[in-house]
Amino acid sequence: MAGNELEQVDFAENPEPRCAVILLLDTSGSMAGVSIQALNEGLKVFEREVKADHLAALRAEICPVTFGGWVSVIDPTSGNRIGYDARIAFATADQFCAPTLSANGGTPLGDGARTALKLLRERKDLYKQGGLDYFRPWVLILTDGEPTDSGWEAAAEEMARAEERKEMVVFPIGVEGANLTKLARFSRQHEPLMLKGLAYDKLFVWLSKSMTAVSNSNPGQQVPLPRVDSWAAVSTSN
Amino acid sequence: MVSALAAWRVIGASVQGSSHRVLGIPCQDAHSYRCLADRTLVLAVTDGAGSAQKAQEGAQFAAAWTTDALCQRLEGQHPSSPEEWETLVRESAQSARTKLVQKAEEEGIDLHDFATTLTCAVISPFWTVTAQVGDGVGIIELGNGELLTAAVPQRGLYANETNFLTMDDALDRLAVSCYRGQARSMALSSDGLLRLIVKLPQYAPEARFFWPLFDFLRSTPDEEVIRTVMEAFLVSERVCRRTDDDKTILLAVMTDEAKTEVPQ
């Protein structure tokens, strides 16, 4: 008999809280070939997985930023390069369309980190203006090399400090060939993890699950995240 | 059966969120209530922190011990001013917190392993009081039929951050609201239902949610039927589409036959 008695009960309409995720992706020349292909495949997996979770799809806001030669903001809904604008640089996961990236040029990770910080700060201002609740944003850094732009150290320090101030969470991830010592300077809260081979697909399954965990979390400063052993090399994981 | 509870119909339901089911995490919400001989009603809802090791136990202890502490202090003469009520509620929350501290020491665990929110209320014949540390919601229907959010969720900078009874300064964070007069209905909820039952950002009660629910309770004498329907409702597709967190709702309505018996 249960089920129909409360059909007259209706719900408040509220916008979903948002969790901004910047994918800060290395598209420098060294990524060319199988690595960029595997990354592109991984992004497709991410699109599929994150859309499969109804609530995460409405709450996770994705913003791909690439650094290969120069820093580019990628339209999350079309995969095209767009101008720098926090209003359009993010899209909820239900509208996300995995970009197909190509690789060339140097590794301006410092500029990429500055762009990510600026985008996140402006995005949060937009949330506040719109009266939206939001979770602590994420920055996932993925690189197979080391920063080649001058002044990257200052940018890394700025990002690490912003994370300590709880502005966002930074996950630095190295792909084979990455300089983990330099990468570690972008976060003092999360030690860089090393991707197992080209397991981008598994990394992005994990990211999608993490988005689910965060965007559906109970109150609490720390959300237990899924295990990383499917994609992270053993030596640096904890 | 004629009992002290006859004046009130009280139904509580705590159900596991669908994300918790998938991840194998138990329901970390709890609730507790009691009706005293003078028809004063004491209610508590708690929500264990997802990040805490023993959140489920912490929530259960906090709900039970707060109810105990409130009832103990209400056995004698009731407070007669908002200040006295605030003191009574604070002492009760303090008492529950102290027991949690002792329990943690006994078990040799960190107090924060019991991290839980606390939303509680007392409806006496002449006063309605809510108190909260955390992000639950407390809605009351005043005598004039107005719906009001008495316990407002406390939110941190981010959507998943709030205050817990286990924090060092939890008592400083406890927010107490006191109304003269007896509420006709009350709903306490954990944050799992937040977006469905109040309009953000003002946390205004959603009338389309509460009136049919209160009407259903008033018109259904069999509490077992109500509980079954409520639990089915909380796990229904249309609720779970909007939230996959644990959900608790503790409802109290003054039944019509009792209304005429309320002391003047």
Structure keywords:
heterodimer, A: alpha/beta, 8-stranded mixed sheet, 6 helices, 34% helix, B: 264 residues, alpha+beta, 9 helices, globular, disordered C terminus
Topology:
The complex is a heterodimer of chains A (238) and B (264).
Chain A: E1 19-26, H1 34-52, H2 54-59, E2 60-68, E3 70-74, E4 81-82, E5 91-92, H3 109-130, E6 138-143, H4 152-164, E7 169-174, H5 180-183, E8 193-194, H6 200-215
Chain B: E1 8-15, H1 18-23, E2 29-35, E3 41-48, H2 55-73, H3 82-107, E4 116-123, E5 127-133, E6 137-141, E7 147-151, H4 170-173, E8 175-180, E9 185-189, H5 194-197, E10 198-199, E11 204-205, H6 207-219, H7 223-234, H8 237-240, E12 247-254, H9 256-259
Antiparallel strand pairs in B: 1-12, 2-3, 3-4, 4-5, 5-8, 6-7, 6-9, 9-12, 10-11
Textual characterization of the structure:
The complex is a heterodimer of chains A (238) and B (264). Chain A has 238 residues and is an alpha/beta fold. In chain A, 34% of the residues lie in helices and 17% in strands. Chain A has helices at 34-52, 54-59, 109-130, 152-164, 180-183, 200-215; strands at residues 19-26, 60-68, 70-74, 81-82, 91-92, 138-143, 169-174, 193-194. The mean pLDDT of chain A is 90. In chain A, strand 2 and strand 3 form a beta hairpin. Chain B has a 5-stranded antiparallel sheet with strand order 1-12-9-6-7. Chain B has a 5-stranded antiparallel sheet with strand order 2-3-4-5-8. In chain B, helix 2 (55-73) crosses helix 3 (82-107). Chains A and B meet through helix 6 of A and helix 5, strand 10, helix 6 and helix 7 of B.
